[in-house]
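Board notes (copied after class):
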Amino acid sequence: MTQLLLVDDDRDLCSLISDFLTSNGLAVEMAHDGPACLRAAGIRRYDLILLDVMMPGMDGFAVLAELRRFSDTPVVMLTARGEPADRIAGLRLGADDYLPKPFDPDELLARIQAILRRVTGVTVRESSPVIEIAGVRLNPSARAVTSNDHPVDLTAAEYEILEQLMRAAGRPVSRDEISLRLYQREASPFDRSIDVHLSHIRRKLGESGAMIRTIRGAGYLFALDKAGEAAE
């Protein structure tokens, strides 16, 4: 079933939209502020995100800018502000469509269906290919990992870190980059959670865990070959 994330601080409106979309065969999860949206999108991959612009604190534009640092999930912006400048700003940040409030639910459904038709099938699979490096194979569509043909059981956070490192294979990824993806904040020098996750990933990958190397002062690197040792 198609999975949507609906992000709006208006809880009553969220419930109405969710009921309508659910009745049309879509599965809908809700978040009511920007940080909650980023946390949800960092844990699982949605088919499409409906994102309100006018939210207190972190508005939709800020959420979209951060979201595009780690996700290519299609986004439809929803807003009571319909000025062309706002629409252009959203599209430049990576929105796929923009729908002014109030809107006809049938129009919203039609736009969702049009975007899903455009990104499903071969196009989506080509944009998220299987990544395989020196025996470690990561399938983004299935969120599945194998190491030397053996399944690797990772937590959601461990999977996100491994995918981030493998997509950047050959270059270091800083602790801040990893923390922003997982927690939507820069890394604290006193927070060792990333180190714990990396230790678990290395152990679960077995001998291929040595592919993940600590680069002093730069972060962590997924090597392109098995030469060398990983620093702990």
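Comment from the instructor: The chain has nine helices and eleven strands. The radius of gyration is 19 Å.
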